[in-house]
Structure formats: structure tokens, C-alpha cells
Amino acid sequence: KAYKHTFFQSERLLTGLNCLQPGQAQHIHIHAEQDKFYLVLEGEGRFSVDGEEKTCGPGQLILAPAGIDHGVTNDGDAVLTFMTVIAPFPN
Fold it and tell me: How would residue 91 be classed by pLDDT, with cut points 50, 70 and 90?
């Protein structure tokens, strides 16, 4: 089962931790008015932003500006852990 925990939420910002087991995904989606970034903490995942895919690992930052489709798939053998920040807070 995927794990998600919100650390902080206000009307301007949401930040949380996400863990995906091998084979799990956060499917392609769009935040029309929110910018988002992922910071990979552990493992590797295939991140898709605006139709481009890139495998990213610890320390890499992935940006998904407002209105751009994005998602992530853990197609590796280990848990993928990443921090997510979205601003402003999605209503």
C-alpha cells in the first residue's frame, strides 16, 4: 500500500511525504493553479512532467509548474520515498 503523510498545510502551502512500493504509481494528473515539486529522498522512480520521463534518485528535484501534467512510477525494486510541496494549497 502506498503511504502518504501531510506534514504541513495552510491556505498557501502543502508539504508531505510519499512512499511508493515497487510497481505503485501516482498517476498522471494536473494542478491547474498550483506549482509542485518532488524531492527524492530514497530509492528511484520514473517521473513524468509534460510528457517527458526521467528516472530520478536521492537528492534530485523535479518541478511541475501549474497546468502541466505530471506523475511518478516506482518501477524499481525498492521503496521510493519523496517529499512533495504544492503551493498555493489546492482547494
Answer: low
